[in-house]
Amino acid sequence: MEVMGAGMLLLGAVICLLSSIGLLRFPDAFTRLQASAKVAAFASGLVLIGTALVLERPALVGRFLVLVVFVLVTASVASHLLVRGAYVDARTPVWERTEPDELRQRLEPGHEEERLREELGA
After folding, report:
1. pTM
2. Is the pLDDT at 122 greater than 60, yes or no?
3. Cβ-proximal residues to 118 (8 Å cutoff; 6+ apart), any chain
């Protein structure tokens, strides 16, 4: 169990390192936040499970699993809210090679009425 735990700790640390390199290299805030969200969700889970395996204390395993679930849920929601807030704020620059921006049109005023007319066939 200790060897498996050490392997998970090492893998989690490597993923954290790769993510920090991605944070430095990615071109805009949206791709950087995506990289950091993956680390919070995946690497933190590996580190927590690896720690539980290395400690070999059955009483702590359940607590660490609850922490893993908590990190998985909150990291994805928090990163989604951060990206959505940055997207709505038009001052956040988008990488010039980003594909056509369909969500921007939906957020413009009056678009909801246009969509409803299309759905109703009017």
Report:
1. 0.71
2. no
3. none
